[in-house]
Design a protein that fits this description.
4% strand, DNA-binding, 42% helix, globular, 2 strands, 111 residues, 5 helices, two-stranded parallel sheet, mainly alpha
Length: 111
Amino acid sequence: MGARQGAGWQRVYAVVCAIPAGRVATYAQVAALAGRPGHARQVGYALFALARDRADEVPWHRVINARGEISRRSDRGPEDLQRAMLEAEGVHFSLGHGRVDLKRFGWRPES
DNA sequence: CTTATGACTTTCA
DNA sequence: CTGAAAGCCATAA
């Protein structure tokens, strides 16, 4: 599979880029804001493609799963890197077990 | 056209 | 709280 950028995910990319520093959004949230509710899986997939092509332009590390944890990828490398970047931005995993408090760091589009 | 796969979510036990 | 199963859908071959 290895998705490529040439899809309608441009909207998703825009949403991810809109996530302010120090905040995190869930896949479902990004999907909904991108006009594709329920496509959380595809969002994650699109982000995978991003990490490959536009990692330098899109803050993919600010997107996490509904539990407030970093999604499990095939390898563990990116996972650690993502956590490090989030902490560097001010997102602390205060809930323990590598969990982020979405009530505190969760992105609210209305804000 | 069909088959395979995947950074998810939700529900039920 | 944890764990398993089903659902969903785009992209690639």
